[in-house]
From TrEMBL, chains A, B:
Keywords from the named record: Isoprene biosynthesis, Magnesium, Metal-binding, Transferase
Protein name: Polyprenyl synthetase family protein
Organism ancestry: Bacteria, Pseudomonadati, Pseudomonadota, Alphaproteobacteria, Sphingomonadales
Family: Belongs to the FPP/GGPP synthase family.
Organism: Novosphingobium silvae
Keyword set includes Magnesium: yes
Length: 299, 299
């Protein structure tokens, strides 16, 4: 294993532990009828997922010397948004998925109503965590984090992309529209992770251009890789159902470009993403490793 | 009509217009596949409801000379949370309601998946609006508004109360537990409305005790009144189905106390709420009128 490989492996292990620990500490189970709700939130939030958004956020924050505790707080918030979106996306009326992170989806492990409420509660939890006074950056930074996460997750970001994804089942989307869809559905939150790390690092907006370029490129590469996993992957390895997009008649990067050109495109995007980091030295090695990991993963 | 009656009627009319206008301005329909999502958000958010939370928030803000525009912004945020909770609460897997504010519920007018996403989008929208730089109080005030709204709407507030409400269908709750349930499900957000008005007015936490007492009392009175409407009301006037709690076998204030004692209890709570305002003069007349309106309304 090369130096960057072990840097990546160590960082993935560390962030997984930190995020699990933070969710565990911040979501104590109450001793009344709400216990089931918090247990459902914990079921979905703890012990699953690659924690890619927290990894990106903390990697950028580390580059600018941000205190680890403040970065983890913000990372938990964005991961809570990601987890809530998966819960709602898995619902019978949405993607109707039975498996997530290798275990039954929340609405099967609990029930649909609890899944709706647990998603909503994790959504509110994200903003509550960002606004908490406990660890905290100054209010100027806090409110910029709230604004960034709110914008990236709502109708103009992630939720807007999910809506386009629903429409995609009954429409013929071209490459440009599929690109736009994915930039919103997955890219907006990945971009917010990078942006929030930069906000914590007090990088002024005009100094964030290269980081935004990096985030945009890895966001698209990530989605192409996801389409390839859906097209070719193994459900047991992926931890979720595969072959779904073709079954739903949805256009994807793979259906529009073919697997070979899609793979080539993802590789190009990753090189382009790394190119955006040229002004940085060794401190950006983790971001470079994350970019490469994004297209090499099998889940 | 007495002086306070016309004050109330004028204020209800004014806030309805302002909230509709703000939603209209803040939710422009985009020219792509997300149009359907924003149309769904607008369908649920514009032109319905009593706007009780915005009325409370602006009434308190007015007492402390808060600029109207800033108060309306915060009022739109809390109303967006209320509207999203109604959309999700009406879903087939939750209360399975067909009518809301006298028109078909969102999942019937559109579809279930769109209803889930429109609720989620209004949820994110609320925090985005609070964090906006356009109109704004200082970041200290903004972040306190975010913290208050996040806490009141999540697992420790409204969503927690909704979870208890689900459990209530299969459990025998006593008066104390029903009270706690309602304090969370409805009371938390009504309390947040009053609290947010006070935050905008820069009333320090130790100076908010009487306002919290007022909010707690009208919150319970509001729910008892709702139970009475559900017990005795007319669906056409209420704008939604009635008689549902009894059908679902849920204990309510009316089932536990009987209608006469429930009505008496609500009246007592309103007098107690008004009592909390004794230190205020005419500037609190609207809050007094709102307290009385809460048990006199028929929808």
């Amino acid at each position: 294993m090369g130096v960057t490989d072990s840097l990546l492996a160590d960082s993935l292990g560390r962030i997984a532990e930190e995020i699990d620990g933070a969710f565990d500490a911040l979501l104590p189970v109450p001793g009344d009828a709400r216990a089931r709700l918090v247990e459902a939130m914990r079921y979905a939030a703890i012990g699953g997922g690659k924690r890619l958004r927290p990894l990106l956020l903390t990697a950028v924050a580390d580059m600018y010397g941000v205190q680890r505790e403040a970065a983890i707080r913000a990372a938990v918030a964005i991961e809570a948004i990601h987890v809530y979106s998966l819960i709602h996306d898995d619902l019978p009326c949405m993607d109707d998925d039975a498996m997530r992170h290798g275990k039954p989806t929340l609405h099967l492990a609990f029930d649909e109503a609890t899944a709706v409420l647990a998603g909503d509660s994790l959504h509110a939890f994200a903003f509550e965590v960002l606004a908490d006074t406990a660890t905290s950056p100054d209010p100027f930074t806090q409110i910029e984090l709230v604004r960034t996460l709110g914008h990236a997750s709502g109708a103009q970001g992630m939720a807007g992309g999910q809506m386009m994804d629903l429409v995609a089942e009954t429409s013929e989307f071209d490459l440009q529209t599929v690109t736009r869809l994915q930039q919103l559905k997955t890219g907006a939150l990945l971009g917010a992770a990078v942006e929030m790390g930069a906000i914590l690092g007090r990088v002024q907006p005009e100094g964030r251009g290269h980081l935004r370029g990096y985030a945009r490129d890895i966001g698209l590469a990530f989605q192409i890789a996801d389409d390839l996993i859906d097209h070719e992957g193994d459900a047991a390895v992926a931890g979720k159902a595969v072959g779904k997009d073709a079954d739903a008649g949805k256009e994807t990067f793979v259906s529009l470009l073919g697997p070979d050109r899609a793979r080539e495109q993802a590789r190009m995007l990753v090189e382009q993403a790394v190119g955006h980091l040229a002004q940085h030295g060794r401190e950006a090695d983790l971001l470079r490793a994350v970019a490469r990991y994004i297209i090499e993963r099998d889940h």
